[in-house]
Amino acid sequence: MSNDIQNQNKVMPPPASAYFIAPTEELPVRHTLAILVDNEPGVLARVIGLFSGRGYNIDSLTVSETEHERHLSRITIVTRATPSMLEQIKRQLDRIVPIHRIVDLTLNAYGLGHDKPIERELAMVKVANSGEKRSEALRLADAFGAVVSDADVGHFIFEVTGRTHKIDQFIAIMQPLGIVEVCRTGVAAMNRGGEGL
Amino acid sequence: MNTADKKSKGIEMTGAEMVVRALVDNGVADLFGYPGGAVLPIYDELHQQDDIRHVLVRHEQGAGHAAEGYARSTNRPGVCLVTSGPGATNMVTPLQDALMDSIPLVCITGQVPTPLIGSDAFQECDTVGITRACTKHNWLVKDVNDLARVLHEAFYVATSGRPGPVVVDIPKDVQFATGIYTPPSDERHASYNPASKGDASAIAAAVALMAQAEKPILYTGGGVINSGPEASQLLRRLVAETGFPITSTLMGLGSYPASGENWLGMLGMHGTYEANMAMHDCDVMVCIGARFDDRITGRLDAFSPHSQKIHIDIDPSSINKIVHVEVPVIGDVANVLGEMLTQWGKVKSRPKIDAWWKQIDVWRDRNSLAYAGNDDVIMPQLALERLHELTKDRDTYITTEVGQHQMWAAQFYGFEEPNRWMTSGGLGTMGYGLPAALGVQIAHPDALVIDIAGDASIQMCIQEMSCAVQHGAPIKIMILNNEYMGMVRQWQQLLHGNRLSHTYTEAMPDFVKLAEAYGGTGIRCTKPAELDDAIMTMIETPGPVIFDCCVVTLANCFPMIPSGKAHNEMLLPDEASDEAVATAIGEEGKALV
Asked: Could you report the per-residue pLDDT of B77-115, keeping only the tens digit for each?
């Protein structure tokens, strides 16, 4: 393994200079951030513009107004970054004027003794088929706790909720059974326990 | 009725009136701008009042840089007013410039009427979209009743915390609409409340580290200037009480006087040998209002390898962004230094740094700014030394463009006070200096304001000569004319085998005639023996002057840390043979900027 890395380095020397962020030993980790913002025009553009402009990753993004009277929206971002870059992401986000708070749900979950916050996604999966495949799809959907939201003689729309991994699995299993359309909400997340954000 | 005569408590007025009223209520005396269709209602209001002086520039970029110079020399926000579309897009460069150098700017842009937004109307652009990445914050105001609040908020955001540029985009129908104006209030902002007071325990940790230092250094930056004149005074006290050596970035020059005993000169790519060697070998580094820019650190994995670092900055995102620090202190420089001095007073045993100073004196003796004199042609370094000598006892402000002349100015013009040095540091904007000088002169009508320029940079905003003549701003432009884009050429020599691709300006305007064409005065000098007389003529001639100072064409700017090299791998002037220059940058470094 270490030989492989050395060989790679010979092909592509690591930048050792001022003009790059120094090569790091740190491995990227996946964190879920909850961001409370004023629900005003352009606020989402500011957040995602920061991510694209500074080269950060977005694995998932979910946003909706959560407090109507105060016009506050909650953005849930799943990002993948090294611990030091993650710190930068949070501090850069904090510079955006209409952002009220940034909470690292993953870090908080560690603090509470959990390995991650509660994370859920909703997916709608449209499957068009007939005969054997049709009954197989219904049987599998039942096993995943999916709800039939719409059906006809030739199709189902399943509504399935759960962790990202579960949704991935459901879609993979349905694939040979005639998926024609998939829509996912992205991750909504919250920490366990009685404490608020 | 005159706008300023109206009572300001909840009074009904048009959006355009509100703009002028809000500027007055926020203490604005001068405004740089250029009219156009989408700001005509505001210009009509400006015409009917005497509280605010409007300075008509010749290009919106000029308005932005003038406002930057104004802000930097006064510690007050610079304000500009431009129209929609091209007016706004021309403002993008100064906005980014101000963002990178943390200069407070409030830019008001006109916008097409709200029903036309998004229809590709004449002179429409997505101003808030385009400027989102180059402002600290921006607003599009669609309701006239939000306008007063947004304008006051704009001033607060621009000037508080880490200062920066903001844009308020106002559609023309909102300028015409009538609504309720409310005066500025002290109400806390709902989501934006930057901390200014440093954490006392963090400061205590910093002081403890400093007290044990054997090889300390203070590394200061533009944040000291931004914090206000008090910060520079506290910094001087800190230097006096600790006895520590001090260096500064380009943006921080003047916060500690260049004639001060502990001054090591500027650090970084074109900094002095002693400053960079001291940064490399120190054991405790106190970074005050600077941000470990790549022009400062050189090769990052060899940056000050043996030191523990203290970082004082008002912006938490600056901490650990590039360089890991042991003791971060988040807060305003003046506030933190005040507390630091109090705690330093209680330190029982003072650090023993005599050996460190002896080492620094050895580095100083290397005389890294030495240059070969010449009796026949003017050396640019000599021109700046003479300029400093002949202007140091006057009320002088210096601006620069970007390039070799800028670095020479930083090296050879000794700044004694803060707010006297205006230069484009982070963005490196050629064309900054002339309009910035104009802005400084508007703020300080009786001062001597000199733009130290290069022959290439000066042509990027030369049109503002016309503005200087119109407004009787007697700025002096000293062009170190070497007929090349000298800094680019220097890099071609370092990186590209001396193949000077498009860096020689084959057709140069006659700068003397150009000055005269604008209604100013032009002078030229080519002989070292006549240099002093020419500088004095420039200073003493009333009105705007362009001084075409023809210098040796092929001089390069040393010392230099070549790309990809560390602080202790500097290229010194007496070692910079053609061969050394050609091989100074390795294969890895060539990819860098």
From this structure: 999 999 999 999 999 999 999 999 999 999 999 999 999
Q: Are residues A125 and A67 in the same domain?
A: no
Expressed as residue numbers, the domain containing A133 is: 118-190
Residue at A157 is within a domain: yes
Contact B58, B79 (CB under 8 A): no
In B, which residues are within 8 Å of A95 by CB distance? 136, 315, 317
Contact call for A100 and B317, based on CB within 8 A: no
Q: Distance between CA B272 and CA B572 in Å, rounded? A: 9
Q: Kindly indicate the confidence band of residue B385, based on its pLDDT and cuts at 50, 70 and 90.
A: very high
Sign of CA dihedral B127, B132, B133, B135: positive
Residues A97 and A162 in one domain: no
Question: Is there a single domain that holds both residue A177 and residue A135?
Answer: yes
Contact B300 A45 (CB under 8 A): no
Query: Of the residues A80, A111, A142, which one is the last residue of a structural domain?
Result: A111
Nearest to B535 by CA among B543, B544, B524, B519: B524
Separation in Å, CA B334 to CA B4, B73, B242, B311: 35, 18, 17, 14
The least confident of A4-18, B294-308, B377-391 is A4-18
Looking at the fold, whether A52 and A33 belong to one and the same domain comes out as: yes
Is A91–B589 a contact, with Cβ atoms under 8 angstroms apart? no
d(CA B30, CA B78): 8
- A20 contact residues in B (CB cutoff 8 A): 300, 592
Residue A169 lies in a domain: yes
- Domain of A185, CATH number, reads 3.30.70.1150
Q: pLDDT digit string (tens) for A167-195?
A: 999 999 999 999 999 999 999 999 999 99
Task: Report the predicted TM-score, pTM, of the whole model to 2 decimal places.
Answer: 0.93
- CA–CA min distance A56, chain B (Å): 14
In a mutagenesis test of the B interface, which of A17, A84, A102 is the best target, namely the one with the most B β-carbons within 10 Å? A17
Q: Is the ipTM of this complex over 0.95?
A: no
Residue B294 to chain A, least CA–CA distance (Å): 5
Has residue B589 got a pLDDT over 50?
yes
Number of domains in chain A: 2
Using the 3D structure, point to which of A59, A85, A111 is the last residue of a domain.
A111
